What we know:
Layout: H1 2-17, H2 22-42, H3 46-74, H4 82-85, H5 93-106, H6 114-126, H7 130-155, H8 169-187, H9 190-195, H10 199-202
Amino acid sequence: LRAAGLLMVVSAGVWAAFQRHLGRLMGYAAVAETGFLLIALGLGTAGGIQLIFLQMIPRGLGLIVWAMSLTTIQSHIESPRFVHAQGVARLLPIASAGIVFANLSAAGFPLLAGFPVRMALLESLARQSMGLTLWLALGLLGLTVGAMRTLAVVSLSEAETAWGSRETRIQVTLISLGILGLFALGLFPQLSQFLLKNLPAKFQNLGQ
């Protein structure tokens, strides 16, 4: 399980680093998220089981924010390819921010929801194998590169386009709340522990 999870994370990270399609970037992030769960399960420890459940809320929130933002952007551009999404942040700033922050959260960027669980997973894996930890870090680096490339594409435009917002009020409200949630879980990871505190004990033998 641990090896399969690492393979998923590394391959998804590498592909994400060179991807030029916003939708496929989300797909690779979802693959990596599944890999993180398998790695935690493969640790075979009580701490690993706890990490599985601690990842659930950040993972779900990140993918929801990403999906809402991507849907909003797709409704205003020809296709979600980088060539068509260039400078889209000038027209859809909230949706563009949603995609970037969700991607960074999946990569374990500091202050975002994915950071505490990614750090805990790296620490737990490091106790068993430094080599495998480096592979996990490589996958996270690939996801981060994908997020940075996305940020560059959506924020830079060849033509001078005035900044504005074409999102509806509902889209702005939902995506903004989602982004705030990503920061809240990153700054206060105990929120996830409070909501899921009794679940790990019921599955303590999982993966053993």
